[in-house]
Design brief:
single chain; 6-stranded antiparallel sheet
Length: 132
């Protein structure tokens, strides 16, 4: 999965914004002002950092060499994935969606429910159209 693919997928979720608060070489995707994707497309290999439930984070690190504790992040709650082709595209998409849902779960319930519903509707339409 390429950095461009991840960026496009992240932007499919409801109310996602893209910023570059760390400079032009790092793209940050937020929902309701909270970070859920940090993409470094210019690295060799490119990397993406994603929020993750702690038990799942450990499982993914044990299963994939390309998944490591979050670089410059809370290593309990964040993984960094080297986009070297060793992690299947479907798995990376699941990690991005999981990260989005983890962040949304921390928002006030009324906001979170609306965002999950909107994202589910958008993603369902996207899948039905054959784009995923």
């Amino acid at each position: 999965m390429t950095p461009e693919d991840i960026a496009g997928f992240a932007l499919e979720f409801a109310q996602v914004t893209e910023e570059q608060p760390f400079g032009p070489t790092v793209d940050v995707y937020k929902v309701a002002g909270k970070v859920f994707v940090i993409l470094a497309p210019d690295g060799t290999p490119p990397t993406v950092s994603l929020k993750c439930e702690p038990g799942l984070a450990i499982h993914l690190r044990e299963h994939y060499d390309a998944v490591t504790p979050g670089y410059h992040l809370n290593k309990r709650h964040w993984n960094t994935v080297a986009l070297d082709g060793s992690v299947p595209e479907d798995e990376i998409k699941e990690m991005v969606e999981h990260s989005y849902r983890r962040v949304v779960a921390g928002l006030p319930k009324s906001v979170g429910r609306r965002l999950v519903l909107l994202s589910d509707l958008r993603l369902d339409r996207h899948v039905e159209g054959g784009a995923l």
